[in-house]
Amino acid sequence: MEIQETKAELLDLITFFLKQHNGYELLPVSHRLIILDSNILLAKALAALSQNGEEASPIWNSESGAYVGLFTYRCLADLMLYYYKNFSFEEAMEDIKQLTLEDLKDILPKDNLTLNPKVRSSPMVSLYRVSKQLLETSLNSVPLVDIDTSTKRDVVVANLTTYQVLQFMASNIKEKELLSYLTLEHMNIGTYGGLSVVNMKTPVIEIISLFVDNDVSVVPIIDESGTLINAFDRSDLKNFIRHGMLNNLEMPVEEAIQLRSSDYSGVHTCKRKDNLWSVLTTVRNEFIYRLIVIDDDTKPIGIITLSDILKSLIK
C-alpha cells in the first residue's frame, strides 16, 4: 500500500507542477532553433540535423509564411524502405539527389504525423497539455508556434522535446526523495515482451522494416548467448545517406555500426530495480532518448523511451 500511496503522491505532484508552467518558461534567454525550409534538399536537411545534434526540426514554407510540419529520423526509415522496395539503387540515388522536404508528403504514408502541420502547440499552453500531446502523437518533440499579432502569421518559437519537459521537471521538483524511492518496476515503465532483437549478421534492411512495422526506434543487438552487445538506432540511418550507401542496405549491421561518428555516445542500459531519479540523472547527463533494460545476465528484456517515463509520471 505504501508504494501505491507514494506513486499517487508523485503523480499528483508532477501533474500539478506541469499544469502551472508553460513552454515559454523552458526557453533560455538565448537559444538555437533549427528550422528547415520546405524546399531544402533532403540531403541538406539530414546534414543540418546531424551537425546540430538534433533528432527533429520544424519545416517552414517560405511562400505561405507558415509552419507546415516536422522533419524527423522517423521520416527517413519510411523513405528508405519505400525506395528499397520500389526502385533500383541508381533510380533511388538519382531521385534522392533532387528530393526536397516538400516532396516527402507525396511519398510517405498519409498517417505520418511528422509532416502534419496540425502537430503543433502554443507556447502559452501548460506543459501538462504539451505532454499529453507528445504522448498522443508518439513523437519526441512538438513545435511551439505562436501567432504574430501584426501579420497574423506563424512564428515558430521552439521545438519542445520530451527530454526538455523531463529535464525541467527533474530540475525543479523539490520532492526528489519520491523519485529516489520508486523504481522502474514500481512504476511499470517500459515495453516488455515480444522484444525485437537482432544479431550482428542481420541485414540493415530487416532492421528498417522493424522500425517501420513495429514503430520502434531502437533494436538491441545480441550475441549467440542472448547477451546485449550493441544496438541499432533509427538515427543510425542518416549515415547511409551521408556516405552514399543506399545500395548497401543489405549489409550486416556489424558493418553499419562502423559508419558512426567518433562522438557516438554508446548504448545506455538500466535495470528494472533502478530508481527513477538515477534513470533521470543518466538521461539528463548523457542527453539520451532511450535505454535498453537488461537483466542480471546483461540480456535485453525491454526498452524504455522518454515517452514511457513521461507517461508514467502524469495523470
Give a written overview of the molecule.
This protein is an alpha+beta fold and 315 residues long. It folds into two domains: 27-161, CBS-domain; 176-313, CBS-domain, CATH 3.10.580. It is 39% helix and 18% strand. It is built from 13 helices and eleven strands. Strands 6-11-10-9 form a four-stranded mixed beta sheet. The mean pLDDT is 90.
- Helix run count: 13
User: CATH homologous superfamily name of the largest domain?
Assistant: CBS-domain
Task: Output the strand order for the largest sheet.
Answer: 6-11-10-9
Rg, nearest Å: 20 Å
* E-strand count: 11
Structural class: alpha+beta
* Basic shape: flat
- How many discrete domains? 2
Order of helices and strands: HEHEEHHHEEHHHEHEEHHEHEEH
- In terms of DSSP E residues, the strand content is 15-25%
Query: Unreliable stretches, pLDDT < 50, 5 or more residues?
Result: none
Task: Describe the largest sheet.
Answer: 4 strands, mixed
Family: Belongs to the 5'-AMP-activated protein kinase gamma subunit family.
Keywords: CBS domain, Repeat
Organism: Smittium megazygosporum
Pfam families: CBS (PF00571)
